[in-house]
Amino acid sequence: MPRTTTLVFAGDSITDAGRDREDAASLGDGYVALIARAVGDGDPGVTVVNKGIGGDRAVDLAARWDDVLAAQPDVLTVYVGVNDMWRRFDSDDPTSAEDFEASVAGLLQAARDAGVERLVLIEPFFVPVRDDQVAWLDDLNGKRDAVRRLAERFDATLVLLHDDVTAAAAENGAPAIVPDGVHPTPQGAEIIADAWLRAHAALVPVDAAVTAVSP
């Protein structure tokens, strides 16, 4: 039997996208499901696993990292950071860029130690929808810079996203892309999926199929 390739996506609510955690076949209705459909459906050669949980920061992801690695990813995508920014402003619970970088570095090192072949980092985005939120970007920029450094340090594929989402929101209006600045509409999810697929065209052949599995 040919060896399967497992694509695991770990992150917060943008990855979670309302998946039913009681349904092993649920990928949610966000970018992970779009990637699965784009790669194909019905061939056991590739498996997609959604490990997103809404509200997660890097430290929350670290607390459940053993469960993520238990899915035995060949390609592991990590998409986290916006909640590390958000909690500073809605809960007075800041995460410095240095602490964020250290937490994500620990995740990536553990993945490498577990034999994960390919790592993918998605750059976090935020689109201010209120005037007072513009200053929040200063906090996020430190996390974005950390993700870029980590991609280089761990030889991970970097999926750039912030500028694409910002431009789409400027052109179409934030309500069409990210009504609250964070959670994407279907059109916003397509932007994320397209960015991932462009970055990984060589990793996942377009004619490969996916068996959707989201334990």
Automatic annotation (TrEMBL):
InterPro entries: Ester_Hydrolysis_Enzymes (IPR051532), SGNH_hydro (IPR013830), SGNH_hydro_sf (IPR036514). Gene3D superfamilies: SGNH hydrolase. Keywords: Hydrolase. One of its GO terms (molecular function) is hydrolase activity. Pfam families: Lipase_GDSL_2 (PF13472). The keyword Hydrolase applies. The keyword NADP does not apply. Residues 9-190 form the SGNH hydrolase-type esterase domain. It comes from the Bacteria. This is SGNH/GDSL hydrolase family protein.
